[in-house]
Structure formats: C-alpha cells, structure tokens
Design brief:
Rossmann fold, eight-stranded mixed β-sheet, globular
Length: 238
Amino acid sequence: MTTTLITGANKSLGKETARILVEAGHTVWIGSRDEARGRAAADDLGARFVQLDVTDDASVAAAFATIAESGTGLDVLVNNAGIAKRVPGNPMEEALDGPSVLEVFDTNAVGIVRVTQAALPLLQESANPVIVNVSSALGSFWATHEPSRPASHFVSIAYGSSKAAVSMLTVQYAMAYPDIKVNAVEPGITATELGGGSVKDHPGRPAAESAAVVARLAMIGADGPTGTFQEDLGELGW
C-alpha cells in the first residue's frame, strides 16, 4: 500500500489529486490548516486527516509525528499548498507590499523546505519515495520568454518568483537525495480560489482535470524521472 501526504488538500487541486490517488489505492493523508474543512474533505474521499500549516514549524512537526505514530509510513509527498495575494478590493492586482510578498514566499517556497525536511525521515524508509512540488509555468524562465505560452503574457511578480524558487528547490532536493524522485509539476491554468477570486469566474479548466498531471507524477515507479519539470504533455522548460 502506498501512503501519500498532500498539503493544502482540503479543496481544489489538492483535493482532486487526493481523489485520484485514493481511487488508485493510495492511503492519502489530507493536510489542511483548517481542521473542519480538512476533516470534511477526508471523510468525503475516504482519506485520513492531519492538521498541517506549512508556515508553522510546530504544526509541521506535529503533523509528521501523527503520521509516524499511525504506522502508515510515507511514500509520497505532494507539496501542493500555495497562495497568491491580491490587493484588497481589487482581485486583479497583485499585492506587492513587503508583508504580502513575505507571506507568499513563506507559504510557497519556505513551506516546501519545512515540510520536506520533516518528511525526509519517513520517506527514506520507503522502497519508492517520491516528492511532487506543485509549481507553475509562471515560474519558468523558458515559458515566460516563449510567446506561444500564456505565462509570457501575464505579469506575476511575487507569485511567479516564488514558483521559480519552487523549481530550484526541486532541482536541489533531487541532487541532494538521489534515492528520492523529486519533480516539479505545472498543473495548467486551473479554476481555483487562489488569490481570493471566485472559481466560477475563473477562465481556467476544472481542478479535476489539472489534478491528473499531479497524480501522474505522484504514481511514478522506481524507473520514473527525477529533477524534472512536468506538465500534461511531458517536460516543461525551466
């Protein structure tokens, strides 16, 4: 039995990824800051819940203590939790004040380090350890310079930069831990509440569709790739 932890999994992309993996036979831990929403998502999917705030060292430590004590082990970590910050009253404008930018980086990049470091002891006991970091083409130097890609026509100063950090974290962790397959994934333009917007007004595709590429990377075997940036059709340029 493969055991997977997904951060930020009480809704949207994280929850839909969990749904696919539960259906594939994984034991899935739903990591969520909000206990009520997290438990509801876990109950809905037939998963397990663990309270997990990726910006809180104590919360992260407690979450992994819970998983370790449960005896499920851990084979796959999906670092999905992420935020974008918008100017209050103007969901189309990115918030670029110092505290907002620090919050974005703390969640999207530093959060990956917190969670990954805490997960390593359990992952290193797995016969097929896998880490999937949910990134974005907005953090790809190639995609933001390629006129055919939407990322080259969309300004995302803080969020895009935080996702570029996610990409480098992926490369560095893959180098540091060659026995763990570590990959980043671009899930596509997805209708979510990221940044405080409304799903029904978002032009992106359903989260259930985007979750397929995240789940695919979470289910790779021992011969799977590592240190790559993946999207629907294969590798994405860094």
